Amino acid sequence: MTTLELQQLNSLDASDFNHTPCYCEENVYFLCKKLCSNGIADAQGSDLFVVFISNDNKQIPLWHQKASNRADGVILWDYHAICIQRKRDGDTHLVWDLDSSLPFPCPLATYVSETVRPSFQLFSEFQRFFRVVHAPIFLRHFASDRRHMKDSEGNWTAQPPTYETIVAEDGSVHNLNEYIEIHAADVGKNLPADLTSAVYSQKHGVVIGEAQLEEFFSQIS
């Protein structure tokens, strides 16, 4: 990492980015765009990956989350979305999580050990699975009209952002469920070359288990 890159990272704060509580999918969308526009990431976002975290039961525990009322910051999300920036030449991969109380950005290894805590013994229904989507693909195809944030009577369950909803390049207005529907059966049992290369071509990326996350990013080129 160059001196300029270090200076840019050290000058960043989570408050510099759009953040609306409970709208992590939109937050990460605009985070990727800003990282590209300010030179922190490649202009096309080729070094960025959007990662959705969920499971069959829509119950995933993550630690060091600002929304938690507990000292350890643990919270049970139905799903969460973060950005991981791949670094080459042996540099540390970085996690950009606007909802985390860890350093921003955070080294991937630290984020996994402190936020995911794969060594912590969880019941199987709380296992976390990760849908990894290449950011340039995500930015073209993702759409949300926020319908998932309204109750049966049409009332907002959380106050929405003030900006316009995100529409995909093809005109789609809502496809969030295609990203957050993550099941154990979708997980690749190992990490063959075709899985790590598929992330660059598949609209919905690839799904991996929590024990595979660091290995996956060490293998993609």
Automatic annotation (TrEMBL):
Residue stretches in coiled coil: none
Keyword Hydrolase: yes
Top EC class for this record: hydrolase
Example of a GO MF term: protein-N-terminal glutamine amidohydrolase activity
Enzyme nomenclature, EC number: 3.5.1.122
Domain Protein N-terminal glutamine amidohydrolase alpha beta roll per the UniProt entry, residue ranges: 19-217
Hydrolase recorded as keyword: yes
Source organism superkingdom: Eukaryota
UniProt keyword annotations, A-Z: Hydrolase
Gene3D superfamilies xrefs: Protein N-terminal glutamine amidohydrolase, alpha beta roll
Catalytically driven reaction(s): N-terminal L-glutaminyl-[protein] + H2O = N-terminal L-glutamyl-[protein] + NH4(+)
Pfam families (alphabetical): Nt_Gln_amidase
Role: Mediates the side-chain deamidation of N-terminal glutamine residues to glutamate, an important step in N-end rule pathway of protein degradation. Conversion of the resulting N-terminal glutamine to glutamate renders the protein susceptible to arginylation, polyubiquitination and degradation as specified by the N-end rule. Does not act on substrates with internal or C-terminal glutamine and does not act on non-glutamine residues in any position.
Assembly, per entry: Monomer.
Family of the protein in this entry: Belongs to the NTAQ1 family.
Protein name per Swiss-Prot or TrEMBL: Protein N-terminal glutamine amidohydrolase
Organism: Theobroma cacao (Cacao)
